């Protein structure tokens, strides 16, 4: 089953900036056979359910192994059965609609 997820991994107690941990998580995600789109407050993930959740698990495991003691993640996930729609396609449909009004 394909899914689309929005992931935000937050290291707790690591200081004000979390860019190093975010970059580490992005590198981990890129090793998996999923589509990723980094945005200002997280990453959109798209792919097979098991691959998406294996990637999320790897982010937690590897950040802990790197010394991050506490992580909290927000995960929103959606599935649909009527068609296969990537994040780019989903975004393009809305952008096309917005451009119609110009």
From TrEMBL:
Q: Which GO terms describe its cellular component?
A: cytosol
**Residues spanning the signal sequence:** none
Which Pfam family, any one, appears in the UniProt record?
Thiamine_BP
Q: Which InterPro entries match?
A: MTH1187/YkoF-like (IPR029756), Thiamine_BP (IPR002767), UPF0045_domain (IPR051614)
Which parts of the sequence belong to the Thiamine-binding protein domain? 5-95
NCBIfam families named in the record: MTH1187 family thiamine-binding protein (TIGR00106)
Q: Kindly give the PANTHER family that the UniProt entry links to this protein.
A: UPF0045 PROTEIN ECM15
Belongs to which family? Belongs to the UPF0045 family.
Query: Can you say what this protein is called?
Result: Thiamine-binding protein domain-containing protein
- Which species is this UniProt entry from? Saccharospirillum salsuginis
Q: What is the lineage of its organism?
A: Bacteria, Pseudomonadati, Pseudomonadota, Gammaproteobacteria, Oceanospirillales
């Amino acid at each position: 089953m394909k899914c689309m997820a929005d992931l935000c991994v937050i290291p707790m107690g690591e200081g004000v900036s979390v860019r190093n941990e975010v970059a580490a998580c992005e590198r981990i995600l890129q090793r998996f056979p999923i589509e990723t789109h980094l945005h200002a407050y997280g990453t959109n993930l798209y792919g097979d359910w098991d691959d998406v959740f294996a990637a999320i698990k790897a982010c937690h495991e590897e950040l802990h192994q790197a010394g991050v003691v506490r992580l909290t993640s927000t995960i929103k996930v959606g599935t649909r059965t009527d068609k296969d729609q990537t994040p780019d396609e989903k975004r393009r449909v809305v952008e096309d609609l917005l451009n119609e009004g110009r």
